[in-house]
Amino acid sequence: MGFNCGIVGLPNVGKSTLFNALTSTAAAEAANYPFCTIEPNVGRVGVPDPRLEKLAVMAKSAKVVPTQLEFVDIAGLVRGASKGEGLGNQFLANIRETDAIVHVLRCFEDTDITHVEGSVDPVRDAETVETELMLADLDSLEKRLPPLQKKAKGGDKEAKAQADLMERILPVLREGKPARTVKVDTDEMPLFKQMQLLTGKPVLYVCNVEEASAASGNAFSKRVEEMAARQGAATVVISAAIEAEVSQLPPEDKDEYLASMGLEEPGLNRVIRAGYGLLNLLTFFTVGPKEARAWTVRKGAKAPEAAGVIHTDFERGFIKAETISYADYVALGGEQGAKDAGKMRMEGKEYVVQDGDIFHFRFNV
């Protein structure tokens, strides 16, 4: 399980409330979406996917196992974090290890909850955090570049490739723009990821609003949506207070409570799905009487890589993938119906996995 989202934000924005609601919800729904705490601030939660439930019913599967996403609750950031202020060094080290950032922004007024900046302004808060991350990236690259340039002059091709990429990123950071805005070619992506740049990670903005605005958002969240649109980032509106309340309710009462708030589903489901999309992932399934199971693979992956997600032996000895699309499986009444209609395909090593594919891998080791 190598995909995780770091939950970041200033103090008192609802970051830990969101994380705790995730953990509580997952613990309460362990039968369907298991959650396990790896460390006090790290946990895995099942990705809600109605397709999996549908497949399990059709195949009469004894067990349902969702794919999972890891969330990391990272220490609150303050101005000066890039220089080690507050828990700055810990914050930066923890976020460097994550694949994507879920940035919680306070979008509600409450005189009982102090704001570290003295007023509520989510766009300013986002810029505060982004600035600290950019300063940290700038400092990191300025220290790493000279030794690489020296190696490059000595004929080291890898050092030259790294130095060339850094030389393109540094001016962007100095202009006050994040590293993710730099155009990086496909063959450069491994080098880019190795740099572990804080502003190189995709971002999801979570607007934490008061209960009354949970369904439609408010003026604060609209400003965040406009900012995110300019950046090409995604946003989700939730009320952490509602999520905390929902997480404590018995399953039979949740739908009624959500409906009373004008909501169709918990906001956490949207956060999880958006985080999953942020990481450029897709889901494939394995289905049978023992279990219906969802698996995660990156978009663009070929069939052997998907097989390797299940077991390395499957990838090493890959022969073929018996493949049925989710739509065909459902429309034709399951595996046998799809086979009878000629909708089960035999795909080889070059097949690019599609979201919702149902696989049975043939391998030999």
Characterise the protein shown here:
Residues 26-38 have low confidence and may be disordered. It is flat and about 65 Å long. The strands form three sheets. It has a seven-stranded mixed β-sheet with strand order 2-3-5-1-6-7-8, with helices on both faces. A three-stranded mixed β-sheet has the order 4-10-9, with helices on both faces. The chain has a three-stranded antiparallel β-sheet with strand order 12-11-13. Helix 1 (15-28) runs parallel beside helix 8 (240-248) and helix 4 runs antiparallel to helix 5 (157-174). The chain is α/β, with parallel strands linked by helices. The two termini are 24 Å apart. The chain is 43% helix and 20% strand.
Which terms would index this structure?
flat, three-stranded mixed beta sheet, seven-stranded mixed beta sheet, alpha/beta, 365 residues, 13 strands, 14 helices
Summarize the structure.
The protein has 365 residues and is an alpha/beta fold.
